[in-house]
Design goal:
Length: about 350
Amino acid sequence: MSKRIAIMGCGALGGYVGGYLTREGLDITMIDPWPEHVAAMRDPGLKLSGVTDEECFDVKCNTVLQPEFPAPGVIDPFDIIIIAVKSYDTTAAAEFVKPYLAEDGFVVSLQNGINEHLIADVLGAERTVGCIASQISLSLPGPGDIQRKIKKGGDQHTVFRVGEISGEVTPRVEEIAKMLSCIDSTLATDNLMGERWSKLAANAMRNPVSAATQQGANTNDKDDHIRRITIGLAAEAVRVARAEGAKLVKIMGLSPDDLVGADEGNADATKAVMDKFMADMERRKDSQRPSMAQDVAKGRPTEIDHINGLIADRGKMHGIPTPLNDGIRSVIKNIEAGKIEPGPETLRDL
């Protein structure tokens, strides 16, 4: 009997993964609170598109509107539940799925930020697995329509990294990595927290900058001042992560040492960062916008407190200055509150 798998939160990332796994023939139930999106994924089906023809397909999905989900006990429990909601909804999502989880089942956090501890607080660490989706760049422009804006990682970049909080590479971690390999490159990692902090640094340097300016990374990287902010945000994250004891990996293909060095004016490090930024422009669409920029454009709450806010808060705990992460957090908060309008000028004082 195939395992029963649920996906809690079917926005751009959750929907993308659910669509591929459904096409693969797995027993997938997709749960989401947006009625129009749920209806469209069900019929005529979820439309997935990417930068190559093979990534463009439609698939009818087994979707359920969250408020209409059957009561616990009415349906069979799930062996695996993937949580793909925004970070600020993590605890509520974990509480919602708890009665639907099989006795030997577990939950996978497929989210930005570092949320495994929040899920473990509800379900226990023994029922919590983490999965990073790195450099995948997805958007949800309308109900049932998910678009990928960047090439697949393939053998050039590992997109999905799956691991245990403890760092042990367990059979269930290998199982999830194998399951996701039908979508893109995967890794069963013994360094989940190092991977998480590295992804957090990548989110911190890209998400709020694009959200504040409402420009894509290609445009932002051509602006000397905005590019300096981007590098500085990552460098602050690296310093805090190291104080946390994280074993960092490359951040968007860049050495953590080069990001710190570039922030401190080292010529060789600056050249390495600039060369990578320029190379990335070739594989990224000008229209590419990270999730936080999409949230700002749609007037939705952002994950700023769980990305740059987390870095700033942990920095204070360790006595590490994080003026740029503090500053951009305030900018996004002011945009969310309607006090300022997004645009390149919002970052001129950072």
